[in-house]
Design a protein that fits this description.
Mean pLDDT of chain B: 92
CATH superfamily of chain A: Glutaredoxin
Oligomer: heterodimer
Number of helices of chain B: 25
CATH superfamily of the largest domain in chain B: NADH-ubiquinone oxidoreductase 51kDa subunit
Strand order of the largest sheet of chain A: 2-1-3-4
CATH class of chain A: Alpha Beta
Number of domains of chain A: 1
Helix content of chain B: 25-40%
Largest interface: A-B, 34 and 37 residues
Structural class of chain A: alpha+beta
Largest sheet of chain B: 5 strands, mixed
Number of strands of chain B: 18
CATH architecture of chain A: 3-Layer(aba) Sandwich
Number of domains of chain B: 5
CATH topology of chain A: Glutaredoxin
CATH class of the largest domain in chain B: Alpha Beta
Structural class of chain B: alpha/beta
Radius of gyration of chain A: 16 Å
Low-confidence stretches of chain A: none
Order of helices and strands of chain A: HEHHEEEHH
Distance between the termini of chain A: 59 Å
Number of helices of chain A: 5
Helix content of chain A: 40-55%
Strand content of chain A: 15-25%
Shape of chain A: elongated
Low-confidence stretches of chain B: none
Chain lengths: ~120, ~600
């Protein structure tokens, strides 16, 4: 190790790998992963969220985790987004493409994508 | 892309409750469900809740599973990792609030539990969070940034001033100001100076240093290098007992990785500063925790203390100026450099800054490792963090400082724990063992236990310690055998003071402390032993009498069957309302083992 820059480079490279353990994201993305969710394709959705979040500067602010059955099986895959001090947003009939769009518009832009929410689909 | 981390504790406590099997089972199940690319399995250091091991945490939600067995793992992987359903029956929750939260399906994360909530983790911040075998994870948590800062931005004088100003005091027991120790060593000129880390943790029941070395070995390496720069030393040794194999292995691996990255060795950070670090194994002699004995042992000689002065700052290891600090002390250093003096001084009391790690043991719900700000009251430690005394028993006293320490009686439970408060009540911080005792503990017996330990561990170099502690133990044995007199108590006290004043090293000087402290707070128990020939806690066997209440005895005969010495016989008395004759214990034949009492379902047997 001959310079602080080298140390910093290792830190940057590793930061994303351990940031999960801080578990202090202000925003939580929760993917319903019960049997029905998985059958309807929740896994690619979850992976799309994890990837999109990690590849942006959202890592550390947004926690992506999973939950069990949310109880609205006909709308699976279901994703709920919890933000401190705001009503939660429930997205239904999710796909990996929609997930990427939500990361761009909702998580980065701050505007829920209303056409995918449960309100516009029921 | 990794979306979840499974952290399995690989500390000594959890390893002995088979955490390795749990880890292997996770590896297998994760593979079985095809989650290798999504879930990362990490072995970490001690989480602190050793009594509940093996312990597993799953991030990002921070779900905390306790007492996990290999057979539970498949369920956790399938339910939690695959389907996102927490396996509730394995989630750690012992207080009402947390249990309610689980029932309401609120995520209970580690940091919400009562055990962790009141803690302040600085020294243990990486323990249970990072993989100790991976230097990159340490670096990700700001590791070696303090060393970088010291070598590129600070002069040795700056470093010493920072440590002095922080108010950090030695965590090994004595509480000597760390900055002053460094400042005393730095100006001494010599061809070679040394930094020594004392990891010879010998107090029965203390395991904080082991946990730091197992969970965050790089913090100690980094701190020792910083110390080397500050005092002008280019060589360091970690003296650790061979009884800590996991700690030794991880530390060695960490040292190898640090060399590989050039964080040890020549010209670190291009600053021109060189530092070499090696491990020296101790054979587990308690006296080698004394600084001069430890250095003698590193030199290859029999571990015996030598008179001070000259102090190690002038003539230490190989007669060269040496700084010796304890593991926990070192683990504080990088944090102080990074976060500053004011941050560190904001925690603790006026004369004791920062935090202290305690190994909680004895009669307490949550046996384990806790780190709290100095000045936390004993009540908070025992009841809020430790979860109180099991089985509804009453708290009697807490023993701190192991064989060198004293005890804090229940009447002083609101004492704020710091160096000076403990000394003022005749106790000492010690390295941080905290053994909780309930009403069933006999204080004379407790003092006797620690004396047995020091008699065994006295190196024999000086007479007051070698002979004095033996005589102390004999008097204590006389008292617990019911043969003591009031003069014995006076003699005990006199001898204690003599040993304290005349012993060569810390071992002898502090060996009488358990006796003096119990005499101070529990003199009535000593008097009960010698005057009434009675052990109030019902521990000292020679003074106990087991009796059967003939009116409660239904005559089932179980006690007679259990008795290994045929001391229980049938009488011809049938109590009113009973059909069979009751039993009787022959006092001469009774060996006081208690087997009869343990087996009686009718509470007819009592001991006094």
């Amino acid at each position: 190790m001959k310079s602080l820059a080298e140390l910093q480079a290792i830190k940057e490279r590793m930061k994303n790998k351990v940031i999960l353990r801080e578990g202090s994201g202000e925003v939580r993305v929760v993917v319903g992963m019960a049997t029905c969710g998985i059958a309807a394709g929740a896994r690619p959705v979850l992976n799309a969220f994890v990837e999109a979040v990690n590849n942006s500067d959202l890592a550390g602010k947004v926690t992506v985790s999973q939950t069990g059955c949310i109880g609205i099986c006909q709308f699976e895959p279901v994703v709920e987004i919890y933000e401190a001090g705001k009503e939660k947003t429930t997205y239904v009939k999710m796909t990996a493409e929609k997930a990427q769009e939500i990361v761009e518009k909702h998580l980065k832009g701050g505007k829920p994508v209303s056409e995918y929410t449960i309100g516009s689909n029921s | 892309m990794i979306r979840a981390h499974v952290l399995v504790c690989g500390g000594t406590g959890c390893t002995s409750s088979h955490s390795k099997d749990v880890q292997d089972a996770f590896a297998e199940s994760i593979k079985e469900f095809g989650l290798e690319n999504e879930v990362k399995l990490v072995q970490t250091g001690c989480f602190g809740l050793c009594a509940l091991g093996p312990v597993v945490i799953i991030y990002p939600d921070g779900t905390f599973y306790s007492r996990v067995e290999a057979k539970d793992v498949r369920e956790i992987v399938e339910e939690h990792l695959l389907k996102g359903r927490v396996v509730e029956r394995l989630v750690y929750a012992d207080t009402g609030e947390e249990a309610d939260a689980i029932r309401e399906k609120v995520n209970v994360s580690l940091s919400d539990t009562a055990f962790y909530k009141s803690q302040k983790r600085i020294v243990l911040r990486n323990c249970g969070v990072i993989d100790p075998d991976n230097i990159d994870e340490y670096i990700a948590m700001d590791g070696y940034a303090a060393l970088g800062k010291v070598l590129t931005e600070m002069t040795p004088e700056d470093v010493i001033k920072t440590i002095s100003d922080s108010g950090l005091r030695g965590r090994g027991g004595g509480g000597f100001p760390t900055g002053r120790k460094w400042a005393l060593t730095a100006p001494n000129k010599a061809d070679q100076k040394y930094v020594v880390c004392n990891a010879d943790e010998g107090d029965p029941g203390a395991f904080m240093d082991r946990s730091i070395l197992e969970g965050d070995p790089h913090s100690v390496i980094e701190a020792m290098t910083i110390c080397g720069y500050a005092i002008g030393a280019t060589k360091g040794y970690v003296y650790v007992r061979a009884e800590y194999p996991i700690a030794v292995n991880r530390l060695q691996r960490a040292i190898d990785q640090a060399y590989e990255y050039g964080l040890l060795g020549k010209n670190i950070f291009n600053s021109g500063f060189d530092f070499d670090l090696g491990i020296r194994l101790g054979a587990g002699a308690f006296v080698c925790g004394e600084e001069t004995a430890l250095m003698t042992s590193i030199e290859g000689n029999r571990g015996e203390p030598r008179p001070r002065p000259p102090y190690p700052a002038v003539k230490g290891l190989f007669n060269r100026p040496t700084v010796e600090n304890n593991v926990e002390t070192f683990a504080n250093i990088p944090q102080i450099i990074l976060n500053g003096v004011d941050w560190f001084r904001s925690m603790g009391t006026e004369k004791s800054k920062g935090t202290k790690v305690f190994a909680l043991g004895g009669k307490i719900e949550h046996t384990g490792l806790v780190e709290i700000p100095m000045g936390t009251t004993l009540r908070e430690i025992i009841y809020d963090i430790g979860g109180g005394i099991p089985n509804g028993k009453k708290f009697k006293a807490a023993q701190t400082g192991g064989p060198s320490g004293g005890c804090i009686p229940a009447s002083l439970i609101d004492t704020e724990v710091d160096y000076d408060n403990l000394v003022s009540i005749g106790c000492m911080m010690g390295s941080g063992g905290l053994i909780v005792m309930d009403e069933d503990t006999c204080m004379v017996d407790m003092a006797k236990f620690f004396l047995e330990f020091t008699v065994d561990e006295s190196c024999g170099k000086c007479t007051p310690c070698r002979v004095g502690t033996r005589r102390l133990l004999e008097i204590l044995e006389k008292i617990t055998d019911g043969k003591g007199t009031l003069e014995d108590i006076d003699r005990l006290e006199e001898l204690c003071n003599y040993i304290k004043q005349n012993s060569l090293c810390g071992l002898g000087q502090t060996a009488p402390n358990p006796v003096l402290a119990t005499l101070k707070f529990f003199r009535d128990e000593y008097i009960a032993h010698v005057v009434d020939k009675r052990c109030p806690a019902g521990v000292c066997k020679s003074m106990l009498t087991f009796t059967i209440d003939q009116d409660k005895c239904i005559g089932c005969g179980k006690c007679a069957k259990n008795c290994p010495n045929d001391a229980i016989v049938k009488t011809d008395y049938i109590a009113p309302g009973h059909k069979l004759p009751s039993y009787y214990i022959k006092p001469d034949a009774c060996i006081k083992c208690g087997a009869c009492m343990a087996g009686c379902k009718f509470n007819a047997i009592s001991k006094k």
